[in-house]
Amino acid sequence: MQAIFKKVHTNGWLQEDTVQQLFSEGLNKFLADRFVEGTCPKPNCGYTHARGDQCDSCGALLNPAELLEPRCKFTGGTPVLRSTRHLFLDLPSLEGQLRLYINNTISRGGWSSNAKQVTAAWLRDGLKPHCIT
Question: Is the pLDDT of residue 74 over 90?
Fold first, then answer.
């Protein structure tokens, strides 16, 4: 894993930025995206069990702060936004390579329908830098 990180860093595919992240005061820690649930904010969806990283109903990729009525999966409490610094993978600069890889591997089979749906949503909505820390 360290070799992958070093290669990504050496090639300039990382960006550092400050983000607002949901914090559970009950747990006294920042919550990983999958530990926040709420209502999908996308028009014509409104799925009430969307996770902080994606909506399993419409396939949209989400930021936990976008969720309507967010709640901590552990405590049920409402998390609060706090600033924190993170590293991001610069996916827009890799889009051409990613599209080739995705097309080649999907054509060989073995991808679940959910994996195909999520990947198609990422490409359809335009790749954005993706937080890796």
Answer: yes
